[in-house]
Design a protein that fits this description.
This protein is α/β, with parallel strands linked by helices. Helix content is about 25%, strand content about 25%.
């Protein structure tokens, strides 16, 4: 089969489109013919050697994938060849989660093997491209806002990096849940697109102080909940943007993973800081998102699709942050 594999970590030029053996499945596994795989920043960090989860080389990345069941192990009785599926990348083990595309080979290939328990059937009305965007970004949005953040109808939610795959999903999930959504992005062009998917107010974080803009938008009240993929560089202004008893969801650290801060405001204003790890999310979050897509109540935002052979160009697009929403590979 063809796959995108890297034998060393580095820039996008370490990605090689090459022939590799088709995986052989065990009794509890299934072989999936991959039809679509979406890119995540985790894939880029792993390839660049910048993740705390180093991979065994050579490695085939790809945390998100959808396709057709090609073959089933003898102990897998609830699936048959031809079933359309999306893969839940998190394999639960006694030692903690093991993740497809991280701890074992992923979906940037024509075929991938996974435990039978980790494939979820998708209805015909959900496309392969839409399905492959759901397990990381969309589940992060749902799990973070509802299960970790306890979002309630009528609350005001600030969503950072709303032009990203996760951010664009969070805007739709928050708006669908009855929240007033303030979204940030780095260009006016992206902000116009964010408005189209449901944001009530927008802020360009490159041309303004977002905490000052939040004060203006909320008439000095602040927001109830912050969905933050940025981390350290946004920390102080996040605290300034919250109402008393407000909550911050820490999703990612693209703006730095370490900072120093004064505990006083958190204590005195009853603020809550909550970590969100998608690989801890229960399966029901993925099935919820599949159902919402099926019912046309959620539409994944896809910027561009590439053939598998052009994975380097696709990753460069994500690395440059020039996309709006998700970037897809089609093997």
């Amino acid at each position: 089969m063809k796959a995108i594999r890297y034998h060393e970590v580095g820039e996008v030029d370490v990605l090689k489109y090459e022939d590799v053996p088709t995986p052989e499945i065990g009794d509890d596994e299934v072989l999936v013919r991959v039809r679509a795989a979406s890119l995540n920043h985790l894939d880029l960090r792993l390839r660049a050697g910048k993740s705390p989860r180093p991979v065994e080389l050579p490695h085939i990345g790809g945390v998100d994938a959808s396709g057709d069941v090609e073959e089933v192990g003898k102990n897998v009785t609830n699936l048959s060849p031809g079933t359309r599926v999306v893969i839940d990348p998190t394999v639960k083990t006694p030692k903690g989660p093991s993740v497809m595309g991280v701890n074992f080979h992923g979906g940037f290939a024509e075929y991938v093997k996974v435990p039978g328990a980790n494939v979820v059937p998708i209805p015909d009305e959900v496309s392969y491209d839409d399905a492959c965007t759901l397990p990381v970004c969309s589940v992060t949005a749902w799990y973070g806002l509802y299960e970790r953040g306890g979002m309630q109808r009528g609350e005001t939610v600030l969503i950072h990096a709303a032009g990203s795959g996760t951010g664009s999903a969070a805007v739709q999930v928050a708006k669908g849940g009855g929240a007033y959504v303030i979204a940030t992005a780095g260009s006016d062009e992206k902000l116009e697109k964010v408005k189209e998917i449901g944001a009530d107010a927008t802020i360009n974080y490159n041309t303004s102080d977002f905490s000052e803009e939040v004060k203006k938008i909320t008439e000095g009240k602040g927001v109830d909940l912050i969905f933050d993929q940025v981390g350290a560089s946004a920390w102080e202004n996040n605290l300034k943007s919250l109402k008393p008893k407000g909550r911050i969801l820490l999703i990612g650290v693209v703006g730095g993973g370490q900072t120093t801060f004064n505990f006083g405001p958190i204590i005195m204003r009853d603020l809550s800081v909550l970590g969100v790890t998608v690989f801890n999310a229960p399966r029901k979050n993925l099935t919820n998102m599949i159902n919402l897509v099926s019912l046309n109540r959620f539409k994944p935002v896809i910027d561009k699709t590439f053939p598998l052979s052009e994975a380097a160009q696709a990753q460069k697009m994500l690395e440059d942050r020039s996309q709006f929403g998700k970037v897809i590979l089609n093997p």
